[in-house]
Design a protein that fits this description.
The complex is a heterodimer of chains A (915) and B (181).
Chain A: E1 2-6, H1 11-21, E2 27-31, E3 48-50, E4 56-57, H2 60-70, H3 77-102, H4 108-112, H5 116-129, H6 141-154, H7 165-176, H8 178-187, H9 190-201, H10 209-214, H11 230-242, E5 265-270, H12 281-300, E6 304-311, H13 316-325, H14 329-346, E7 353-356, H15 360-375, E8 379-389, E9 394-395, E10 401-404, E11 413-414, E12 431-435, E13 443-452, H16 454-471, H17 476-487, E14 493-494, E15 496-497, E16 514-515, H18 517-520, H19 523-532, H20 537-540, E17 546-553, H21 557-571, E18 580-584, E19 587-589, H22 604-607, H23 614-623, E20 631-633, H24 635-665, H25 676-697, H26 701-722, H27 724-727, H28 732-756, H29 761-771, H30 806-815, H31 821-825, H32 827-830, H33 852-874, H34 879-899, H35 905-908
Chain B: H1 11-21, E1 29-32, E2 37-40, E3 48-49, H2 51-61, H3 72-89, H4 95-108, H5 122-137, H6 140-145, H7 147-157
Antiparallel strand pairs in B: 1-2, 2-3
Helix pairs in contact in B: 1-2, 3-5, 5-7
Classes of the chains: A alpha/beta (915), B mainly alpha (181).
């Protein structure tokens, strides 16, 4: 039989000693740690006994037992008990003590302290039984096993407390045994110990079950956290000491931003919002806000970044909207483009350029792509049957025709979809079709259209997709949606429309038609860039140098992953194609959907009227960004997150750190003398920082935000444990400690300001101002370094966040609907009011909200009256009586609206839209 | 930090073992320390402490010493797996720990009927009791992934007198996930 032992490993000692003590005929094979530990995989440092039968023993105690068994010494209850105690109690404690000795360099008694209770246990047993050895008056396997576990930690009996007299005597007599001395000399050579030490340094410290149970650390929500290694701690302390000088200088690109040779050039787009509507919170988090956060992160990484977006303005919806509002399509676009731009400005979206699709560049670029596709044979011509209104002299696309739904007989179905049953409709199938403009009866006529030959382009699309998926970050839903589109088979897609409001088709026979929006709209990315810089082709025809990120909600995926890439591949002009397609799931509102027509949900233009700052909106939307699955906006959750995460966690930490500098050190960052505990904190923060980078590089924006909150949680705990406010009143040593803790904390706050910038730019700026963080430090590296060195002066520190109160949130919830029961009560009356979309956008100047008391009272009254009305209806009360009570309810709601400082029309608009 | 360690192997399992061994009731147990280590009260002295120790003692009391192995090699192997049971199976509380245990055992059992090779021992009985709560929660796919563990476990749970009131864990004979590794 062969005994393989790794010199240096503590477990080697007992097996070598036992082999000697039992005079076992064993061949010793010395080696370092096993490269491939024998199964079962335990540890490369554990010895292995290979028996002649082929059986392998890997438990050191079982190996010792085997040697004693082989020479006829059967285990007894007592030896069994010692072996079990050694394996379950002593070994884990000894491993931890050894770690503190070798890795932390603790010496003698200090290292043995942790073993205290266990050593006392041996002492008691020896003295109570009055025997020379653990299991009697003769040596047994128990003595070798327990001695072998203790010796690497104790080395000699002098490190044992003198009151453990019996233990000292026993230990000494064991150590003096020839087999034991020989084993120690051969196993614990200085060279082997060094090797074992360097192995230990890469391992997390062993943890003790007993210690864990009494630990004061708060329980983490998600399983156990990463255990720091010595290397990580040393690296973090080194990085800290190097200071701000090692940070790269923030890079300011020339304007306009153009790709730079040798830099990482990042082009970011967010899906173009359609112009005819006001975006709701779901639209904002799905596209512009997500893209903005990522763009800000890229800039902080010194990546050369261009972020463009704009309104999508062509198409039938604009035309019908124009008819509705009695304006020209261009006037509609101008009006809504300005509304969009305002909303995004309020949300602090950092577009390099926010443009629009109704520009000459759009016509030029779209027509160029079209001509190239035509020339390369990727366009097909076909005739389709369509409704034409002979009076208006036009084909009735989509929403220009209404009639009876062929499926459910709903009388107001539109040409593309029935609002009642939700089914998609081919306009020619409508019963009793009517021209929406003149109410004339249209006729079916054949009309010629052009189609993009997707089946022919598929062979180019697939290898490109494969390559883009292999090298880029596509969200799982983007891959899934794309795959299912391709799997279902690509069919030719019509790219022309019988409309006037669009990019004209530059081909004889089609000059009265325009491009269909889905062909036209993504080209908007290019034309908007062209309106920003005449050198737009350096971004868009430069796949070698440019990385393209498209942000969108998942419903937009096929247009960006299949159709638009096919257009560009077919046009064959070295276009930059998407490398990273980032799609979000949907954001719901409270328990349902956002609905403009039902007045349910918060829309972009109303967010600022809530009195809640833009950064709080940004934070909450990013905190619940539908990353991976749908999520839901909830007012009460918004309040909870604001009060717990922002106010009590993040804001509290940053404010305290700054206040300590001001109050205790006259506004000057004090000297810092780092202890091992501080260094562990630095390593912990560095770990979170690395995690933050890893997540953001994969555009997992929501998850990365958790890292910021974790750091401030660590910071709060650090302050809480060290209590600088008490120590500042203590002796010299205590005052120094208070200084160190304050200095480390304020530097954490400084880094948090930078990490927070992509999420909450105004708050970040506020912290920068309060702590006077040098602008050169507004850069993200992988190191947490000391940016506010001793002597740095901070400014005036003040609270960053405000508490949201329950009353305030309840009032907002009522105001923005969301399936509150009393809405239903007003429905019959509300029908007479104009459709919501025709209301003027909420005026910018509003009456200031009056006192909460009044609002509360009115809110209660409204609820009461709502109940009353419902009850009357349920009891089938007379109509006149119901009407009177409903009128009272409406009056109350109006008063409430005024008290809350908003236009009283809003409640009325909650009714269904009626044509 | 991680949740507090699970309480160690308990008195309940020792009661199961007593019944399996056909011992008369009457042994008195206590527990000791934070890990609730079982202690067998004896008439003379401080009693026996430790799950493995008491289990081996009960086997000898019932005169079924073959359950501890016959040769030195078998005895050492049984000892080793009892130790594995109390240190690894009872010590591990995370999903990752459980995964490693199942992976280890699956490799080990590839060419064995029982933990000690060809003979049924105390190691099989106590490992079965220790893994029961894990196996109950495995999906069909996981049971297939740890095929050797499943085969062994199914064998032990049908061994006369072992299972007692514990639920029968169902294993499907046909493989469903032939490509899963």
């Amino acid at each position: 039989m062969r005994l393989r032992v790794a010199a240096g490993g503590p477990a080697a000692l007992k097996v070598v000693a036992a082999a000697g003590a039992a005079a076992a005929p064993v061949r010793l094979v010395w080696g370092g740690p096993l490269e491939r530990p024998l199964a079962p995989l335990i540890s490369p440092w554990v010895p292995a006994l290979e028996l002649d039968s082929g059986t392998v023993l890997f438990s050191p105690n079982a190996i010792c037992q085997f040697f004693f068994l082989a020479r006829g010494e059967e285990p007894t209850d007592l030896t069994n008990q010692w072996l079990e105690w050694d394996a379950t109690e002593l070994q884990p404690a000894a491993a931890a003590a050894l770690y503190t000795q070798l890795v932390h360099g603790k010496k003698g008694l200090e290292a043995v302290e942790a073993l205290g209770k266990l050593l006392a246990h041996i002492e008691q047993n020896l003295s109570r039984r009055g025997t020379a050895y653990l299991a009697g008056d003769t040596k047994s396997v128990a003595d070798v096993v327990v001695w072998g576990t203790l010796f690497p930690v104790l080395q000699d009996q002098t490190s044992l407390p003198s009151e453990l007299q019996a233990l000292r005597t026993w230990f000494q007599s064991m150590t003096l045994l020839e087999v034991c001395r020989k084993a120690a000399d051969s196993v614990l050579t200085p060279k082997a110990l060094l090797e074992f030490k360097s192995y230990l340094q890469k391992q997390p410290p062993p943890s003790l079950a007993m210690e864990r149970a009494t630990s004061n650390e708060p329980e983490e929500e998600e399983g156990s956290e990463h255990v720091l290694t010595e290397e990580e701690i040393t690296a973090a302390a080194d990085a800290w000491a190097r200071g701000a000088a090692v940070l790269p200088k923030p890079w300011q690109p020339q304007k306009p931003v153009l790709p730079v040779e040798g830099m990482r050039n990042i082009l970011i787009t967010s899906a173009l919002p359609y112009v005819n509507n006001v975006p709701h919170l779901g639209n904002i988090i799905g596209c512009v806000l997500s893209a903005d956060t990522f763009a800000r992160y890229c800039r902080l990484r010194n990546w050369n970044t261009l972020y463009v977006c704009g309104t999508d303005e062509y198409g039938t919806a604009t035309e019908t909207k124009a008819v509705e509002e009695g304006l020209t399509p261009q006037e509609i676009c101008n009006k809504y483009n300005a509304i969009h731009a305002d909303i995004y400005r309020w949300f602090n979206i950092s577009f390099d350029y926010f443009g629009r699709t109704t520009t000459p560049y759009q016509t030029m670029i779209a027509q160029d792509i079209f001509q190239r596709l035509l020339a390369r044979g990727f366009l097909l011509e076909d005739t389709v049957e369509q409704l034409q209104c002979e009076d208006c002299q036009r084909f009735l696309a989509d929403r220009f025709v209404e009639g009876t739904c062929p499926f459910c007989s709903y009388e107001e179905a539109r040409g593309d979809q029935c609002d009642k049953c939700g089914k998609l409709i081919n306009a020619v199938e409508l019963k009793n079709p009517q021209c929406k403009l003149c109410r004339g009866v249209p006729v079916v006529k054949p009309t010629k259209h052009l189609f993009l030959d997707l089946p022919k382009l598929e062979e180019q699309l697939e290898p490109w997709l494969e390559q883009s998926w292999a090298t880029g970050n596509w969200t799982a839903n983007a891959r899934y949606i794309t795959r299912s589109w391709i799997r279902d088979g690509l069919k030719p897609r019509c790219i022309t429309r019988d409309l006037k409001w669009g990019t004209p088709v530059p081909l004889d026979g089609f000059r009265d038609k325009v491009f269909y929006v889905w062909f036209d709209a993504p080209i908007g990315y290019l034309s908007i860039t062209a309106n920003y810089t005449d050198q737009w082709e350096r971004w868009w025809k430069n796949p070698q140098q440019v990385e393209l990120y498209n942000f969108m909600a998942k419903d937009n995926v096929p247009f960006h992953s299949v159709i638009f890439p096919c257009s560009l591949l077919g046009a064959d002009d070295n276009y930059t194609l998407v490398n990273h397609l980032i799609a979000t799931e949907y954001l719901n509102y409270e328990d349902g959907k956002f609905s403009k027509s039902r007045g349910v949900g918060v829309f972009g233009d109303m967010a600022k009227d809530t009195g809640i700052p833009a950064d709080i909106w940004r934070f909450y939307l990013l905190y619940l960004r539908p990353e991976g699955q749908d999520s839901a906006f909830s007012w009460s959750d918004l309040m909870v997150k604001n009060n717990s995460e922002l106010l009590n966690n993040l804001g509290n930490f940053i404010n305290r750190a700054g206040m300590f500098v001001c109050k205790f050190f006259g506004g000057t960052v004090p000297n810092m003398v780092l202890t091992p505990e501080d260094k562990r904190l630095l390593a912990r923060v560095t770990l979170e920082l690395h995690q933050y980078h890893q997540l953001l590089e994969k555009v997992r924006i929501r998850d990365a935000l958790r890292c910021i909150l974790s750091i401030s949680r660590h910071g709060n705990q650090y302050i809480q444990v060290n209590e600088p406010w008490k120590r500042i009143k203590g002796d010299e040593k205590d005052r120094q400690r208070a200084g160190t803790v304050t200095g480390v904390a304020v530097n954490m706050a400084s880094m948090l300001a930078v990490m927070l910038q992509p999420y909450m730019p105004s708050v970040s700026l506020a912290i920068q101002g309060q702590l006077c963080i040098p602008l050169d430090c507004f850069i993200l590296s992988h190191d947490f370094t000391c940016t506010l060195p001793p002597g740095h002066r901070v400014g005036t520190v003040s609270p960053l966040f405000q508490k949201l109160e329950n009353d305030q949130i309840e009032a907002l919830r009522k105001r923005f609907g969301g399936g509150q029961p009393e809405d239903l009560a007003v429905e019959p009356q509300a029908k007479q009011s104009p459709p919501a979309s025709e209301l003027p956008p909420a005026p910018a100047t509003l009456v200031a909200p009056s006192d909460p008391q009044l609002i509360q009272e009115l809110t209660e009254e409204v609820a009461k009256q709502g109940n009353h009305v419902r009850q009357l209806k349920a009891n089938k009360a007379e109509k006149t009586q119901v009407d009177t009570e409903v009128a009272k309810l409406l009056e109350l709601k109006k008063q409430l609206a005024l008290a809350e400082g908003k236009t009283p029309e809003v409640p009325a608009s909650k009714g269904k839209r009626k044509k | 930090m991680a949740a507090a360690a699970r309480p160690g192997p308990g008195v309940d399992e020792l009661a199961l073992l007593e019944k399996l061994l056909g011992l008369p009731k009457g042994n008195k147990y206590g527990v000791q320390g934070e890990r609730k280590v079982p202690v067998l009260q004896t008439n003379n002295g401080p009693g026996l402490t430790g799950f493995m120790t008491i289990a081996a003692h009960l086997v000898k009391q019932a005169k079924k010493d073959q359950l501890l192995g016959s040769t030195a090699e078998e005895k050492a192997v049984v000892q080793q797996w009892l130790e594995y049971r109390v240190t690894r199976v009872d010590g591990g509380s995370s999903k990752e720990d459980t995964r490693i245990i199942l992976k280890d055992l699956n490799i080990y059992l590839e060419d064995k009927v029982y933990l000690a090779g060809n003979i049924f021992t105390l190691a099989d009985i106590l490992m079965y009791y220790g893994l029961h709560h894990v196996m109950v929660d495995l999906t069909v796919q996981e049971k297939e992934k740890y095929l050797n563990v499943s085969r062994w476990f199914n064998h032990i749970q049908h061994y006369p007198g072992v299972r007692q009131h514990l639920s029968n864990v169902i294993f499907i004979k046909n493989r469903l996930y032939t490509n899963a590794h």
